[in-house]
Amino acid sequence: ISFVFLLAKSAWTGQTAQSREQVKSGLYTTAMKFSMLTLMPYLFDVALYVRDVALFGIKEMTGQMITGGATLSLSGAFLVNAERTGRFIDSLMYLGTVLLTLYFAFVYVATAIDLLICFVSFPVMCMMHTPKKDLLGGWVMGVFSDILTPVLDAVLLLVPLLTSLMLSDVIKGIAIIQMMMCMLIIPSRNRI
Question: How high does pLDDT run on average in the chain?
């Protein structure tokens, strides 16, 4: 609509160099907005696929390191580690991951609702975008932070698990460090 208005304004005021430049820039802006509206669902789907592949890779890697090939969830990996070592701190970490799973369930529902709102609001953001107001930049950052949240959570959960696997026999006081790591998972995920 804005491009049609720009053409009508240019025809009404006459064929000046300034009006031709405005029409050229308006044509470019309209083409970019149309291409963004067309490509966004496909790019969004690719970003979700890449996230799912990363999560699957983390899950497979965890299973390879702990059991030598079985596919485990992160809480299952914490359970196997607690059963294998028999240490109190490892069983406490497993209990923490079970409780953290309940917390993540609520957080991921909120993240899914946020992604839905972002997806539905994209056409409005696209049409209202101007170089002075960078609405799309904020939209892209919000969507990427929502998409990458589960990957970052999985990586943060791997840190105490890998510490238990690799350093429990080497360093005697590692249990205190593991407890601090576990206590700092939620604050560190809020910083990211």
Answer: 80
Q: How far apart are CA 159 and CA 44, in angstroms?
A: 29
Which tokens belong to 95?
């209990």
Q: Which distant-in-sequence residues (6+ apart) come within 8 Å of 6 by Cβ? A: 22, 23, 26
Q: Which two tokens stand for residue 182?
A: 């576990």
The contacts of residue 29 (CB under 8 Å, 6+ apart) are 3
Confidence (pTM): 0.74
C-alpha distances (whole Å) from 24 to each of 2, 132, 187 are 13, 19, 50
Segment 15-62, tens digit of pLDDT: 666 666 665 666 667 777 788 888 889 999 999 999 999 999 888 888
